[in-house]
Amino acid sequence: MAQKNKKLSKGAWLSIGALLVTQAVSLFFSARKSGRNPWVWGGAGLVQFPLPAIAYLILERQAKHKK
């Protein structure tokens, strides 16, 4: 079985990069505002999508619920 080499276009790579940077920046500022470790959340947002955002939202909801 020969596998076809499927390449993403430059536009697709730019979109993925923009998505990751947007997620990282929003997680960074939100974590800084709430007193969590912003560099960890921003770094996690740059590496993977959407798990860091989902995890952050769950943790924030739990923290607000405890108050």
From TrEMBL:
UniProt keyword annotation of Transmembrane present: yes
Membrane-crossing segments per the record: 12-32, 38-59
Keywords attached to this entry: Membrane, Transmembrane, Transmembrane helix
Superkingdom of the source species: Bacteria
Protein name: Sigma-Y antisigma factor component
Organism: Exiguobacterium indicum
